[in-house]
Amino acid sequence: MKQIIFGLFIIIALQTQAQSDKYTSAMVAALSELKDAKVADDINAVAAKFIRIGDAEKNQWLPYYYAALTKARMSFMHFGNPDDLADEANTIIAKAEAISANNSEILCVKSMISSCKLLVDPQSRWQEYGAKSNQFIAQSKAADSTNPRPWVLEAMGLKNMPEQFGGGCKRAKPSAEKAEALYSIFKAASELAPTWGKDLVDPIIAECK
Amino acid sequence: MVCKKLVWVAFLFISFIITSNAQVKVNGLVKDNRGRPLKGVSISLKNTYDGGITDSLGKFSFKTYEKGKLTIEATFVNYKSAPQTIELVKEPVSVTFIMKELVNELAAVTVTAGSFEAGDKKRAATVMSSLDMVTTAGSNGDITAALKTLPGAQQIGDQEGLFVRGGAGYETKQFIDGTLVNNPYYTSVPDLAQRGRFSPFLFKGTVFTTGGYSALYGQALSSALILESIDLPERSEADASISSVFVGAGLQHLGKSKKSSYGINYGYTNLLPYFKVVKQRPDYFTIPEFHSFEGNFRIKTKKGIIKYYGTLAHNQLGIRRPNIDSSTIKNAFGLKNTNWYNNLSWREDLGNRWKMNLGLSYSTNLDNINQHLQDLQNNNVTTGIGFLDTTNFTLDSRQDLSQVKAVFEKKLSGISAIRFGGEYWYAYNKNNYNHYDYLLKDQYKALFAESDVYLTNALAAKIGARFEHSSIINKANIAPRVSIAYKTGKEAQMSLAYGVFYQKPENLQLQYTTNLGYTKATHYIANYIKTTNARTFRVEAFYKQYQDLVKTNPVYNNDGDGFAQGIEIFWRDKKTIKDFDYWVSYSYLDTKRNYLNFPEKLQPSFAATHTASIVAKKFITKWKTGFNATYSYATGRPYYNLAYSNTTNKYTISDSGYTTPYSSLGFSVNWLPNLGLQKKKTFIVLVASVTNALNYNLIYGYNYSNNGLIKQPIRPAANQFFFIGCFLSWGVDRSQDAINNNL
């Protein structure tokens, strides 16, 4: 009898193992699909996949994180209505945040979403979304001082802002260098954890010599 | 035994693998409730990773290892998610989803007929923000002047007010946080338009309705200018200003918890230095001088805000002009005014989808006006000539208005809503004219209800009615208002509006007789708007019928009538050229009315047939400087000499004509030297502007001599107005504002 129970335990353990392997392999597959997706429809399909994984898993923040990140990028690239995409991203990232609060990576995405909202109509949205975007960057830095990504976002924001408004190379450079320094010691927490961003600061460093 | 168990385990394992192995294909179709395929809908098997997304034909297909009864769900932004149960065995499964659109505020159409919304941050397509108003060349920071660059409003320079679609200035009323402003402008001076009392920066939202406005507002035949004051300021700040005509200082304090704020302001205007430099046509024997104190507080409540704004202002001026009938005498006009305005409002979300807006307002306006004939040595004289001496007068006038207004809103299913409420005004007007007292008291009550009905995201209606009673004329009315809006495309919509509007006769008429009824206007409006984030195109056609206008000759009654019809076009583009923002407006107006002493239906002298404006703004980031230009043009306005005959007791047109066209080019430059320099504590804005840069000779109309033989053009006090000013603020980086406007 004991052995039966023991056997069942093994089965359950193995199934759980299989389950989490299933999660990892599904995520790895989705991440690689994301890499290859070039047109809006394909990118959107991958985002939908992340959401499905997130909905099924219930306590993994990464699927929602990637789904929101993808939607935010689509908004930036005007793959669809940028305003609607940013709103969508916002609903999704809220689910990630409900699972993992005060998460440096999630706060980065929130900053990106605020920037997306801002870019739709900078003139009338600067005050609200410009402030929000900066605030999330600050929170992200505070949540994890080793995360280079808030520094990437800061460097990009400053680089794109006209010098006369307090932006430009000169002000972007220190943030880009800080990001670069953090990347050199950065170690991803897992094979699924976010690693992006280095390719975004390299050109800033190169240009702002 | 052990062996047996191992067999068991192996069996379980194998069965697990087998059941997981055979994939089932799921495919299907997603359509909306009108049968159109939906693209991009996410399909998922609940609690699994499996699913897909629909293509442009609404089709989807995916494979799954799952077996048994499962929930399959279609989700799509702005659509109601649609779950279904399917049974997965072996055979491919086909599912069809029909999704219903959710009605929500972002996707839904808004009723726009007759209104220009400005400064509302929720919608990207705002027409005019407060910063737009102050950077509109030629406006000199005056709300009314800036709004005149929008279609529907006339370019009138000899009287203050917004003359909208063939309506007189007094047919437009201003409302701040729901309540009427009794004296929105400085007291009238003959033939010289006065400025508005309120700064554009007091308001976060402005709705300029050129007709067909909501049942929540009344007593304006033509137009309602609905202003919503700002909530808590962003930060504490101190500011100061010095310019060619005024100095000012203010303080705005935001509480540490950001739950409350207060502020005070003082401004002093004196035109003496300016008049020394720039010659004025009239002889100012009292230089225009203005003092104004402002105070405000704002307190955040549980789910709302209480706001107070008050201003106490005093001004005086004296103006002397040649008399048209005699070269040996002059007309001297003197004015002293004190105005105290208070507005207290409370906006609260009561929960359970109820909202409340309360408004209290009290204002008193004291005028001391006298007009006297003077000889060439500027001494008061009496000529002994009747028609001349009757122009001498003294007037002490007091106008008080107390108001209370309550509006309740209940959101119904979806975003449909019903609003209702009431208001009560007590007006006390006491005039002492040449030592005769006239007292007018009016208790005005109104009840109103309005509902927003959203049938779909694409079709909405606003249906309302207003019941009013005024004690002074002891008459009641019911004014229905209806408008519908239909979304014709992604960013385009059409609206239709119909409404009846009543207005009490003016006090000067009531002073003569209270045996009068409401004047009435019926509006019919159709408009089309296409708007993207940085571009707006709007075309609007209207017909307005005037009834029961007040006639003052041959007898006082409500026998006047008239009409106005026209087409207006507006185009704004912030996008095509980088850092360049421009708008173009054009109004065609055909209007005639018979009112006051008109002998027949005439095109009133405040109505030009064609009016157009071009406003352009260019910010050069490198120089931190903005350049703004406004050009306005209007065809000539009619003028009449209505001569009174003692024998027939009637007026006849003894002379008439059209003025030369109105044409004015304004420029302004604003330089923000500390823009973006975060270390600088002082934020500086330097402004220089000129109106009528081409020094065009503006003629607003003509005054006639008593015998009708001499006519004199009505002209501004000076063709041009020059302004140089320096605005400083500490504590808040105004860069935000500037970036705001120019990114």
How would you describe this structure to a colleague?
The complex is a heterodimer of chains A (209) and B (743). Chain A has 209 residues and is mainly α. Chain A is built from nine helices and no strands. In chain A, α4 (82-99) runs antiparallel to α5. Chain A is globular. Chain B has 743 residues and is mainly beta. Chain B folds into two domains: 18-99, Immunoglobulin-like; 115-742, Beta Barrel (Maltoporin, Chain A). Chain B has a 22-stranded antiparallel beta barrel. Chain B has a five-stranded mixed β-sheet with strand order 8-11-12-9-10, with no helix packed on it. A four-stranded antiparallel β-sheet of chain B has the order 3-2-5-6, with no helix packed on it. Chain B is elongated. The model of chain B is unreliable at 119-126 and 738-743 (pLDDT under 50).
Q: Low-confidence parts of chain A lasting 5 or more residues at pLDDT below 50? A: none
Which CATH class of the largest domain in chain B is shown? Mainly Beta
Multimer state: heterodimer
CATH architecture term of the largest domain in chain B: Beta Barrel
Mean pLDDT of chain B: 89
- The coarse silhouette of chain A is globular
| Major β-sheet profile of chain A | none
Hey, roughly how much beta strand do the residues of chain A contain?
Answer: under 5%
| Alpha-carbon distance between the two ends of chain A | 73 Å
Rg from Cα of chain B: 32 Å
**Structural class category of chain B:** mainly beta
Number of helices of chain A: 9
Strand content of chain B: over 45%
Poorly predicted ranges of chain B (pLDDT <50, ≥5 residues)?
A: 119-126, 738-743
**How many domains of chain B, as an integer?**
2
Tell me the helix content of chain A.
over 70%
